[in-house]
Design a protein that fits this description.
The protein is mainly beta and 210 residues long. The protein is built from three helices and twelve strands. The protein has helices at residues 41-44, 62-71, 121-125; strands spanning 4-16, 22-30, 33-39, 48-53, 78-82, 95-96, 106-112, 115-119, 163-166, 169-181, 186-190, 200-205. The radius of gyration is 23 Å and the shape is extended.
Length: 210
């Protein structure tokens, strides 16, 4: 992986390309990130770059405070590490901005999806309801049969039932960056990405793009 950055989802809008075609894009306020530590195989057993995002006051434990103090950088709100293929080109204290990407790059975007709480099978699994007339009874949106009472006399594992819906780690692959606005630290990514407005998102170089 050569490129990656953290950001916040701002929302969706549409722009026009050179031919006048309207394109739906998601606006991501990406970076800047500050390099606070470089992990090496000799000391840590693997190579990685530890970065901080969002210079906001936050309680740090002693380990986190020691990392910021040793790097001599301001404490950030979020700490993440990335395994870049060329970690040597990043120096402790340097900034990683959204201009590491360019228009036309293919990326994978990860975030925590919207949470919907405890949901029924119609909302959670897109099942159909029963008819609303002719004696169907008060079970129009119920789950229905969960299995035979004789064989196998149990609920089969993985059966679609009501339960917690959403708030999962989701990755959308092979999304195209339409435009990079380095002056405002903004990426315009074609299509929708997971999470509500303000969600923390990770934009990485695509691993399956052709």
């Amino acid at each position: 992986m050569d490129k990656a950055i953290l950001g916040r989802k701002v929302g969706m809008t549409s722009i026009f390309d050179e031919t006048g075609l309207s394109i739906a894009v998601t606006v991501v306020e990406a970076g800047p990130m500050t390099v606070v530590r470089k992990k090496t195989p000799e000391r840590d057993g693997y190579s990685a770059v530890l970065v901080s995002f969002e210079d906001a006051p936050k309680h740090q434990n002693k380990a986190e405070a020691g990392v910021y103090k040793k790097a001599n950088v301001a404490a950030g709100k979020i700490l993440r590490e990335f395994k870049f293929s060329q970690p040597d080109k990043f120096e402790v204290g340097s900034k990683i901005n959204c201009d590491i990407f360019a228009g036309g790059d293919m990326v994978d975007v990860s975030a925590v999806s919207k949470g919907h709480g405890f949901s029924g099978v119609i909302k959670r699994w897109n099942q159909r309801r029963l008819k609303m007339t002719h004696g169907t009874g008060p079970v129009h949106r119920s789950v229905g049969s969960t299995g035979a009472n004789s064989t196998p006399s149990k609920v089969i594992k993985g059966l679609h039932m009501p339960g917690h819906y959403g708030h999962d780690n989701v990755t959308i692959q092979n999304l195209k960056i339409v435009k990079v606005d380095a002056a405002r630290n903004v990426l315009l990514i074609r299509g929708a990405i997971p999470g509500p407005k303000g969600a923390l998102v990770t934009v990485k170089q695509s691993v399956k793009s052709k």
